């Protein structure tokens, strides 16, 4: 086991545990305002202090993790759900017009700066967590399509694919039975990386006010709201920032670790 | 002179090499033969000091009285290339694709001799001329991708001999090449040894190659040299049982199968044409095309075994793809049992089920994530999965000599020869009439190859199979086919009964192929019954 895999699992597990725990228990109610207790530094009663409305920061972070993970997870789901079939299709028809259409469509989506378009989409559809999911998800599609196609092409040249063709199997069946299981490693690794990017993107959208709307807590909006109070109470900015950094770092390490552990080309021969 | 004495290599508790004594005198070619896993490549790496981490060496490798095993990496670097050169099997990966061939040869000279760019380029020119890549046809500015496999191997040789080393190690230098190219490369190596007074250590699995070129030969098994001496003496006497077993296997003749009395056509190829568009050279120009298969016609009778022989690029793979119904033809047609073969879905499953295929590469032929039972059962897709498919898979595996407990295992747990047997089981499972064997034994060691050829001959009798045996190797085709077709540049240039074509070839191309095929002189053979023990399955 590699250090990056262990550390990555621990750090991203921390975020996941916080999100799951928030469903059954938080130290305080995040909708409960207590202006009298605003901007308290970390203490025995409020482990991570309170924000400008007197809400408990630890509870906010825990519930905020829920939003981040949900948005990133569904966005990765959208990306995989559309991107992987598109990539498999392009690889199966490699060199044909379908391949061209899919891949040039990909290039088109890639050509736009993703966060700016995400802002545009949420601005048109109205800011909400759901629209943030759609915006981030769309930009995940070409990433997965490309990774899938890139992984599938070399496999299509192997003899066992030829044997499957001689056994009368069509491109669709071969893609599902032979290609997909053999590129699963790649997709898992890419999924982890896209997951961390999704968390960053959600934080970014929330930061500019286009993500989850109040009163739903969100790491990005917590940062945005803390901006004016950094000098007064630095912890209100540092804590959500740290939460984002730790989660993204954890997921990236996990992705790296998984790549090393799953990719037989990188594995040392026994 | 380079000499190893009592050279041993261990990794953990495993001994890879044990007590290797090899003398490599200048001006002599020493052949090192053995099957895969016998440690012959490890011996070469040990001499070069290029063993992977974690391996321990003992004994000595002496060069001018210095023990190379005791030198630091820094000193070894100075010796490698300068005193010892090496060439490998795969000329595609031995060269840097982004550097011109001139720069690659010149780089060696600049590093080791401190020549300036111009002088190095001049020397590089001289070295490339020496290996037969002469100006002006082969300027220094060519890139590796602009050369053929044989030409690339020549560049690799030029690199290895650029500094006139005392020893050249060639690890299977011609295994990836066609026979005519192989003959030229072997001639080149022979001339280099003679002219430059080098010692050559030629590592190969092919006894016939060694017979034609080596002065001395060492036979290796399980990390030890079991027999060593002048080539002719070793070949004539065959003192060690392993040497005898190797010889018997390389000239092994499977049982004779008599063709049916009344011929009935099974596969008919009529005027097959397949073209590939070539890339446009400029925008306005019309696209040229390459005729890979150019009006090929032949037939295979039911129960007949037919060989298709040609060198790489002759179109045999393209033709195979068309016969298997993977690619469409542009002209002509192919009939299997009277029905026309069409590419892709247009071909009915019932027709496909009459034909199966076994490929060359025992490693790429199977999905690594599937279990053996599912792999072997895959062709049932054509016929519908029968209720007793597991029994049928077990039966097919039994027929090819694979134990029943293989069914739940993954393919990486099997050796190359076992995988090829499983591939044959997969081809047999739906009881086809024709099996296309695409270089099916080329990647196997001689003893395993002999066993697989026996298996194929036996199955032909018991199942009434017809074979289309595609190969670049005439000697294998001779052992297993009734009839042979010789293919050159998309056309079949000669066809006839195998023994007749082999003994009295008519077409000049067939003659050149036969002349280039290395063989062991007939009078060197020992005609003696080989003990069955020596021929049993090789140890893992």
Automatic annotation (TrEMBL), chain B:
Keyword Mitochondrion listed:
no
Keyword Transmembrane helix, does the record have it?
Answer: no
Record's subcellular location: Cell inner membrane
* CDD domains linked to this entry: ABC_NikE_OppD_transporters (cd03257)
Q: Which family does it belong to?
A: Belongs to the ABC transporter superfamily.
Pfam families attached here? Answer: ABC_tran, oligo_HPY
Q: An example of a Gene Ontology BP annotation on this entry?
A: peptide transport
Q: Which InterPro entries does this UniProt record tie to the protein?
A: AAA+_ATPase (IPR003593), ABC_transp_ATP-bind (IPR050319), ABC_transporter-like_ATP-bd (IPR003439), ABC_transporter-like_CS (IPR017871), Oligopep_ABC_C (IPR013563), P-loop_NTPase (IPR027417)
Write out the entry's keywords from A to Z.
ATP-binding, Nucleotide-binding, Transport
**An example Gene Ontology molecular-function term:** ATP hydrolysis activity
The record gives the membrane topology as: Peripheral membrane protein
Gene3D superfamilies tied to this protein: P-loop containing nucleotide triphosphate hydrolases (3.40.50.300)
Domain (ABC transporter): residue spans on this chain: 2-247, 273-514
Task: Write down what this protein is called.
Answer: ABC transporter related protein
Q: Name a GO CC annotation attached to this entry.
A: plasma membrane
List the PROSITE patterns hit by this protein, alphabetically.
ABC_TRANSPORTER_1, ABC_TRANSPORTER_2
